[in-house]
Each structure stands twice: as C-alpha cells, then as structure tokens.
Amino acid sequence: MSEWRTSRYSEKINCVEVALGPAAKIRDTxxxxxxxxxxxxxxxxxxxxxxxSPATLDLPEV
Length: 62
Description:
alpha+beta, 3-stranded antiparallel sheet
C-alpha cells in the first residue's frame, strides 16, 4: 500500500496529501476522512507537468 505524503513546501495543515501507486490518490489534510480523489498515474503526471510548466493559454483579449 502507498504511503500518504505532503509537499515539503506545505504548512502540513493547509494542503493536500498524495499516495502514489497503481493510481494516484489525493485527499485534503484538514478532512482526511472526507473522501479521496483517485486518478490514473498518467493523469497525475499530466497534472504535475501542467502545474510545473509555463502556461501558454490562447485566451481572447478583453
């Protein structure tokens, strides 16, 4: 079974935790029993890539 981890940059109470394994499981540190989001590891990798890469959005000018 995977171990729950938080970011070393978090305050340990205002963040999410992740457990990696065959699927990525994500939960809120303030409400650990409140539910878990489970996504594929491929989706987890895509999320991290999107968050860590410079954003290039094609948005119309206002």
